[in-house]
Each structure stands twice: as structure tokens, then as C-alpha cells.
Fold each of these.
Amino acid sequence: MQVAIYLFKSSKTNLGYRCLLLSHPSSSPVYLDWNDALPVLRRAYDLGLFTMIIGPKGTGKTTLVRAFGAEIGRTLFPVNFSLRTRESHLIGTKTLENGGVGFVDGILVESMKLGGLLYLDELNAAEADVLLRLDEALDDRRQVVLKESEGQTITASKGWTVIATINPLSHVGTKELPPQLLSRFPVRLRLEYPPEEVEVDIIRRHTSIENSALASTRMGVKLANKLREAAAVEELYYSPSMRETIAFSKLIESGSEAKYAAQLVFANVYGQWGDVEYRKVMDMITSIFGN
């Protein structure tokens, strides 16, 4: 299943968050649904169920959510969680203007009012107090009480839906989510890296790589998969994403020699874990690209 996605010029809420309005013009790029995830998201949406997407970084989780937002025609309200994300980012804050006290809605409240698609990216990087407040809005009532304002109750508009993504606990900054919050997302998708030929196809859609350079692109994808496999069994500390295979191909496209581009994109990052890690990866590069 292929879904075309297009991002209109982003608008900003009063808190500076970006809300993306999605549509389907024929000139837009195509999302390759190699995991058959879009039908699952659609079924969950039609049933009023929230979905959690689980997978390593760089597997296209965000692209998938944007594509789904385009399919259902909902405004996307993304929140990328970190240690700096506070309740006020979700709920809102009081303001003082012209001697009067007002209230600026946070992204959670705004998405509920507008019936949009709330995208909770890297949810398992959020702090406990933020998760507790979010949990209030995700139960069957779909309500949140604005104790920060005048105590009014906000009920989600028809069509409001939520998709969360989480990274494996092996990723830095992630933590185990509490069971009650996990239960709010009864539909769970696993998104892995695509098969090699699909990844090559994705790269071709992000670059203008010529057929003469496809062999180098395929070797770069092969290398990335070997590194991912090694990281999965903790033989290496880092697993490259599709962003990196695209970057590698762009360097090839610009005229860089394949082995040098592989060193720049794939090998050098391992230097932060010491020369042994770096040499392991350089040996793998040499075995694939030669001397």
C-alpha cells in the first residue's frame, strides 16, 4: 500500500509547537509501507483505539505517522519527549496581558479541542509527572481537567486520536513505561528496518542516485545491516538508521569514493567508544568495499 504525503507550510500554536496539516496531492513523495502498518493504524482509528509503534530509531516511525495523518486528513500535533518536556507543554500556561490573566493551551489540549492526531514521539523518554498527566486524557472518557486555569473540563472532539512511538530500552534516555499507561495503547506495532531492496528503493526516492552508483548504495545498505545485527547482539554500541544510508548515498551521488563515504558516515562515529570499536567497523568496511 502506498500513501502520498504532503506537508503544507507549518503553522505555530501560541506555545510555538508545530501543527502539520496533511493532504494528498499527486506530486508528493510516497511512503513505502513495507510493514503493512497503515491498514493496522486505520483499523485502530476506526475502532477508536490508540496505537503504539515500537522500534529502533531511523526505521521511519515518524514518516509512517505523517503518512497516516495524510490518509485520514487530520491535523498532526507532534510532541517529541525529553527530560525538558513539562506538563505545561501539554496542558498550557497562564499569561498576563494588559493587566488580565489568560491561559494559552498546550499541545495536548489544542489537539483535543480540534480533534487532531496527537503524535507522542519517544514517549518512554518522558518524565513520570508528565506521563501521569497525559494518562488522565487517555482513558475512556477522553477528558482532561485544567486545574492550571479555572478547573474546566476539556473533552476531546470527535475524531481525536493518539499514536505514540517508543524506542527500545537499550536506547539512552529511555525508561520503562508504567503498565497503566501501556494499557491506553492496546494496539502495538513493531517497526523494524526494511528488507535491503526496499531500503534501496527508499534511498532512490530521497536521492537522484544514478543506476551506475546503485552497486555502491547496495553495499552501503549491506554494511548498515551488518552493523545493525552486531548492535542487536551488543557486539557494537551503535546501530545506523536509514538516515545514514541515505546520507551515504548522497555522498556517493556527489562523487565521493564509496569506501571513504562509508568511513565518514558509518565508521567515524564509533570512535567515541574507542579505537577497538572503530577498527572493528573499518574492518567490516574493508571486507565489503575492498582496499
Amino acid sequence: MLEKLSPILPTRDVPAAEAFWQRLGFETEYRDDAEYLLMKREGAEVHFFLHPALDPATNDHGAYLRPADIRALSAEWAALGLPATGVPRFMPVEEKPWGMAELALVDPDGNLIRAGQETPLG
């Protein structure tokens, strides 16, 4: 029955969020300059709402993405040259002991996006 779940994340600046997420390969579907943004990439969809008082260092919003090829996505996002620490940041794909290959990205508003693909446990 359930086919899609789309996160709704806070942003301090709608145009800045749009520009960052465009670098990640997302395209704008709808933007209300003052309040709301909807972006898509293939089957993934992410929404943003304006939250001017948001502190990126304490933001606890996030989402989990399931790409078809986690290594290709990691290589693509690594090529953006994001730092490994701070906000924003990018942590490339790693094999996890729970049977997933996962990466993590924190956008400029402190939203944590984890992405993972199942791997065989050995």
C-alpha cells in the first residue's frame, strides 16, 4: 500500500536550500520564495519549510534515502568537495556491521541525510 514517504525538512533560507540541493542533483518542482520548497530526483522527493530561527548545530531533522547504487551516489557527492566536518559535511560510503553500505550528508541547515543499500553479511 505505501509507495513513497517524503521528508519535510526545515531551512533558514529557501533559495539557499534550493541551490545546495540542486548541486546534489535534485530539481525544483515547486517553490514559494518565502515559505516552501519541493525538490525531486528520480524517485526521491524532499520538501523544505521556512524556519528562520533554526540552529544548524542542534537541528535533529533528517531522512534516510535508499539509492539503487550507493557507491555511485557516494562518488557523485564526494566530487562536490564538501568538507568532512562541520556543517555542511559529507561522509562517504562505508560498510556497516548491520549489513548496509551507508553514507551521510549534512546540508547547510543541519539536516542529516543518510543513504544506504543492503550488502551481503559475511
Amino acid sequence: MTSHIYKLLRDKTEGFLLVNIPFLHRRLHRHRLGLKYIIAGSTAAGVDLILLFLLTDMVGMWYFYSAIIAYICSFFTSFFLQKFWTFRDNDRSRIKKQLAIYIATAGVSLTLNSFFMFVFVSFFQIWYLTAQFITSALLAFGSFILNKTVTFKKLS
């Protein structure tokens, strides 16, 4: 049912753009994989922030525990959205291996995030939020390439 609704919305939107704004349709179509990656990642970030807020402020859980639970939920949200929606990989036989690679990628990203944040803030005197934005963009690009070419690579 939801896949039918999704397909209907996608087809209607594509048809509208193709007829009314063809240059935008061409650009979106050309970069659809990257856009889907960004949307899925943003959705996971939203899950993280919303759960962190709800568990801490509404439930009264200690923020440290809330952050752990929120991170785990957002991690799995990201993995499943990237696997099934962004990269359209419906092969369930490789899911354990892909999850292991995804976890390793997340660990490397966390390490690199800490390193770049330290370098940008301590050595280049960049404001920490700007540094995090730059770092996140760099890591997102790297993760996209790794996930496309390794984690969710189409098997022939």
C-alpha cells in the first residue's frame, strides 16, 4: 500500500516537473541518488534529535542514556533507508555483511569527525559549529562514495 502511494506521488511529481519545469526535472533526475542520500541522512539526523529531545525532556531520561538510544535508532534508520530506498538494494541475503561494513564506516567516520573537529577548531581557529558543518559535509561525501561502491554495491 505505501509503495503504491510512494510510486503514485513520485510519478505525479515527476510528471508535473517534466511538463512545467523541465530544467529542474533534468537536474533532479541526474542527481537523484545524491539527493536521496541527503534526504535519508537528514531523516536519520531528525530521528536522532527528536528522540534525544523526547527521551530527555518528555520522559525525563538522563541525557547520556537518551543520546545513546537516539543514536542507535538513527543509525538503523539511516542504514535501512540507505539500503532499501537510496540504493534500492532489496537483497536480504547480504544484510549482515552490509550492516557490518556500515558499522565499521560509522566508526571510521566518528574517528575522522573527532580528528577534523580538533584540527579545524584548535589549529585553524574555526568556530566549532562551522567546523562541524565542514566536517559533516566531507564525511557525508566520503560515506556516500564508500556506501555506493562497497556497502551497497550492485552485484552482477
